[in-house]
Design a protein that fits this description.
homodimer, 366 residues, alpha+beta, DNA Polymerase III, Chain A, domain 2, 44% strand, DNA_polIII_beta_N (chains A, B), 3'-5' exonuclease activity (chains A, B)
């Protein structure tokens, strides 16, 4: 194998495939990048089995071939070399030479035949969505996935396609996030993608162009320009989230998002001091009074609202409200409540494309 | 106590004194900030005994008094409040009220009489140096202090005033850093200041104006505008560093600093893979060849130099050379060597105000 590649081109490719390499694998080959040189193109592949990423970069290929190089040291070497052409060629059956200006590295390589093959995916049946929109949908929901692994299905985000819509849903037993966008397809699909995969996908998604998505029974494939991201789909049924979201409410609050967020963040300073995050909301007339107290003292915040319906006293884990209010983008938001023990729904005032649900904290009667 | 203070003014003051509060003290009072309101000025004090910081900020004082507030929660509250005037007043013998727009906090305060008094320092005998220069001197030496505490004196930086010069010296048994600047004083002083104190001092020092320094037998006082920083001086004798620095050499190498730094950083990638950091320098004619190898492979770097004297082969822990080359500022540097087992001296080519010494690694004969 022998090729010449521009340093920054190669480095960009490496940093994309490195997103799938955890460095924690017990299989040494999975700490490596599979590099295949053919037809004036390099194909780089990284994999941790659950998530595999393949990308292509331009190169002048003088001799075709494949090797696997340790991702960390190869990445560091390319990153530290001067921004010039890099010459890479195998010098014997287990070493490769990396030359750039007055630097010469000789690296041991691993056998490309040991590298796990990518799942075979038929790319005929795919749909397309702007990268920017998918990135935003992931950001709007991923914070609500479960962190603990007791119910593995909840560590993923549901991708649901039906009625010409793509819905992303995450929930962890305390709160739920749902974001929807229109999609030009008649398909019906339901698959749960691991949250940590989507974190990496989100880093690769850019502001322009589309991403193409293909589902198989066990995998999802994201095609982004010259990059393919293949993730395992989580096994099991996702919770029927529609049955959790209430439809009828006794009061509706319209509030300014940033003002409310700032008040809740300040109120939660007291609650944090005791690790309870407990804040109380008193909704009455044109004000929401937010209070919290701890051994260190107490806080009272007031924020102007428009209230339709009865007054209410309700308590929350402030973290859940803060997560939602930070993620949302509109200036004005609507909160729907029924009682102090029923979930609260938070949504945009204008665009009906997201629903957030937060369970209240039941206060013991004093 | 009752006063009104602008939020950002108060926040700046808090962030200065917080640099002395570790949050790890077993004395709860040392997690607090002492706030004294008098004569249209607030005095804020933080302390961890070893290091105390006092600063003053403007305020409208309506009722004089003193309280101690938990540094973390008070700091967070002030940071999160809107940028407006903040009204603070005690409401009973153990609570203070913090009001700003529609926010109201009530905080428990601690007894100011429990706060340890600052050491009494006679400020008559002080010398003055531009903040920017002292900041640079600290940065140029502090990286060489010992991290392990087996010889506590080496965890500090020597402040030595003699012959109208201020010398800062740090050493850890493997390398030494010495930076000197002219100082208009006839005093002779030698005191060792804890490295962690100087880290905090360095963060407070700005680009303009002077800092005034006063020594007492046990303390050093830095006066920076409205801020006083008082640090304990380490007990014990510093090593007679002059006797360590050799004066005669067999070869002198002139090199481009950044080019050499980049070569060494790349060479050390291999060495890092095995945690040895071991690199070998072959100095001959117009080239320095830098090599390193590990189980993963090997590297050969070449950098142009001007050599006066014999050729030499010598090995180093690359980290020590990298630390020095990163800290230095001139484009061209000079390295003096005697033999493969004698220390190497690194200094600027032009300005004679710093000396770095690095011990080589003795290679076992093969």
């Amino acid at each position: 194998m022998k090729f010449v590649c521009n340093r920054s081109t190669l480095q960009n490719g490496i940093s994309v495939v490195q997103k799938s390499i955890t460095g924690k694998s017990s299989l040494p080959i999975l700490n490596g990048i599979l590099i295949t040189a053919a037809e004036n193109e390099l194909t780089l592949v990284g994999s941790d089995i659950d998530l595999s990423i393949e990308t292509k970069v331009n190169a002048e290929v003088y001799e075709e071939g494949s090797i696997v190089l340790d991702s960390k040291i190869f990445g560091e070497i390319i990153r530290k070399l001067p921004n010039d052409n890099i010459h890479i060629n195998t010098i014997n059956s287990n070493s490769v030479e990396i030359l750039c200006q007055k630097s010469r590295f000789t690296l041991i390589y691993m056998d490309p035949l040991d590298f796990p093959p990518l799942p075979n995916i038929n790319e005929n049946d795919m749909f397309s969505i702007p990268q920017k929109i998918l990135k935003n949908m992931i950001k709007s929901t991923i914070f609500a996935v479960a962190v603990d692994e007791t119910r593995p299905i909840l560590t993923g985000v549901l991708f649901e396609i039906k009625n010409k819509k793509l819905n992303l849903v995450a929930l962890d037993g305390y709160r739920l996030a749902l974001k929807s966008e229109n999609l030009d397809t008649d398909n019906t699909i339901s698959a749960v993608i691991p949250g940590k995969t989507l974190n990496e996908v989100s880093k690769i998604l850019e502001e322009k162009d589309n991403v193409k998505i293909t589902f198989t029974p066990n995998h999802i494939l994201f095609n982004i320009n010259k990059t393919k991201i293949i993730s395992r789909i989580l096994e099991g049924e996702f919770i029927k989230y529609n049955s959790i979201i209430p439809n009828e409410f006794n009061l509706k609050v319209t509030a300014k998002r940033i003002e409310l967020l700032n008040s809740i963040e300040r109120a939660s300073l007291m609650a944090q001091a005791e690790n309870t995050n407990l804040i109380k909301l008193n909704i009455e007339d044109e004000n929401m009074i937010i209070t919290s107290n701890s051994q260190l003292g107490m806080v009272r915040e007031e924020t102007s609202i428009i209230l339709q319906g009865e007054s209410l006293e309700i308590a929350f884990n402030s973290k859940y409200l803060i997560d939602v209010l930070k993620t949302m983008e509109e200036d004005e938001i609507v909160m729907d409540f029924s009682s102090s023990i029923s979930p609260c729904i938070i949504r945009n005032k204008e665009i009906d494309n997201c629903i957030y649900l937060v369970l209240p904290v039941r206060l013991s009667k004093k």
